[in-house]
Amino acid sequence: MNIGEFFKNLLNSLLDGSFERMRIINAMNMSFKETFVSGDINRMCKVSISQGDPDFKHPMSSFWFRSGFKISIVNDSNVKDSEYEEIAQYVLQNKTFIRQLMAIGFDTLIVQGGTTKKGKKFSLKGYANLDSYYLQ
Amino acid sequence: MMISWFKKLFKNSNKVSIHEGINVVESIGKAKSLYKELIILAHPDRHPNREELYQELTNRINANRYNYNELVKIKEELLSVE
User: Fold this and answer.
1) What DSSP element (H or E) covers A48?
2) d(C-alpha B71, C-alpha B52), whole Å
3) A49 close to A29: Cβ distance less than 8 angstroms
4) Using CA atoms, how far apart are residues A53 and A50, in angstroms rounded to an integer?
């Protein structure tokens, strides 16, 4: 971990009041790097905290500017829309992971290109099957 | 006070499971090929004598096509059944 990342992690932890989010994000980034290096994926991805969509808010959401769970594709030339969709499906079809993300304050999944900034947003609560447990 | 705050911070972070996050990444890399392999292996037409069992396995494979850990479990089950 370089000094920049250390301060970024510290800032994120202070804003969240815990290391929970950074621990998951760091583990996923490490795993993405290993998977890319081993040749299992051809798109290098990076996970970070981003702005969420206020329309996707739920009772466990953090502040809107810290409620987005963003997966950026670093080498994003010629990325098709279907690739964004496909990456998102791996998160959205994993109900345990969705609930975990919601419990630590995320409400929006964002999959986008690192340089083009094109991508898609998904509401986590729409995939968690918890509709009847929310206050109307 | 500062020390107790840091202790609390680390204590909470240890409770979080990173297992599912890593599973998502592994799924992006490996689930597609494993799904293709399993869906062929478990096709009910290949096992006319135990069609119901393999139909159920096929349904489970389809339901977990984006979840690598679950597909690995199904593969173990499939190999033990065969």
Assistant:
1) strand A45-50
2) 19
3) no
4) 10
pLDDT in tens, A23-56: 899 999 999 999 999 999 999 999 999 999 999 9
CB contact under 8 A, B9 and A41: no
Alpha carbon distance A112, A123 (integer Å): 15
pTM: 0.83
Extents of the domains making up chain B: 18-81
Residue that the structure tokens 């996923």 belong to? A28
Model ipTM over 0.90: no
Q: How far B79 CA lies from chain A's nearest CA (Å)?
A: 24
Tokens of A72: 């950026």
The Cα–Cα gap between A67 and A128 comes to: 16
Smallest CA-to-CA distance from A110 within A47, A25, A63 is with A47
Query: Are B24 and A91 within 8 A, CB to CB?
Result: yes
Match 């990325």 to its residue by tokens: A79
Domain boundaries, given as residue ranges, for chain A: 3-128
Nearest to B27 among A18, A45, A90 (CB): A90
Distance from CA of A135 to the nearest CA of B (A): 27
Which tokens hold the place of B58? Answer: 């096929």
- Contact (CB, 8 A) for A106 and A91: no
